[in-house]
Amino acid sequence: MTPQQPHVLVVDDDDRLRKLIRKYLSENGFLVAAASDAADARAKLATIAFDLIVLDLMMPGESGLDLAHDLRRKSAVPILMLTAMGEADDRIRGLEKGADDYLVKPFEPRELVLRINNILKRAPAPAEPPAEVKMGAVLFKAERGELSRDGRPIRLTDVEQALLAALARQ
């Protein structure tokens, strides 16, 4: 994985389509995770920061519309709706619920990649990492690679410094 490789979550209950999308996006420079329904997506979203979500509307349990609406209230992660529901009212409802774009199935895989790239170009740049990260009594100064507890320095190896710096950037 490279730092520029966007991380995409594909949420679709169709196992075959989900695997095909995952494979195609991976072959086109994306890091891809997949979820079979809204509950699975929520579990992944709780632990991983994604750059974009490709979201099916019609899923068992919680619908993609409901998930998008809930996500939009607490997150700015871009959402591309990917669904068989292609009527104007469906597209409008999806955009009203928080989708950044809407693509109707069946679709051309290249168009999916282009739409994802266009959305990501418009997405705000990630915030600058903090110069210091405080974790209870422990303070890490990222630029200097220094770790201290209650003001007392803690010795770090080069690998430990690099690991903490990477974590601080994230």
Characterise the protein shown here.
This protein is of the alpha/beta class and 170 residues long. It has helices at 15-27, 38-45, 64-74, 88-96, 109-122, 158-169; strands spanning 7-11, 31-35, 52-55, 79-83, 101-104, 132-135, 138-141, 146-149, 152-154. It is elongated and about 65 Å long. The chain starts with 6 loop residues before the first strand and ends with a helix.
SSE diagram, text form:
Elements: E1 7-11, H1 15-27, E2 31-35, H2 38-45, E3 52-55, H3 64-74, E4 79-83, H4 88-96, E5 101-104, H5 109-122, E6 132-135, E7 138-141, E8 146-149, E9 152-154, H6 158-169
Parallel strand pairs: 1-2, 1-3, 3-4, 4-5
Antiparallel strand pairs: 6-7, 7-8, 8-9
Q: Going across the biggest sheet, name each strand in turn.
A: 2-1-3-4-5
Briefly note the structural class of the backbone. alpha/beta
Total helices: the number is: 6
Identify the overall geometry.
elongated
Strand content bin:
15-25%
Main pleated sheet: 5 strands, parallel
Low-pLDDT windows of residues: none
Mean pLDDT: 89
**What gap, in angstroms, lies between the N and C termini?**
14 Å
Number of strands: 9
What proportion of the residues is helical, as a percent range?
25-40%
User: Nearest-angstrom radius of gyration?
Assistant: 19 Å
Order of helices and strands: EHEHEHEHEHEEEEH
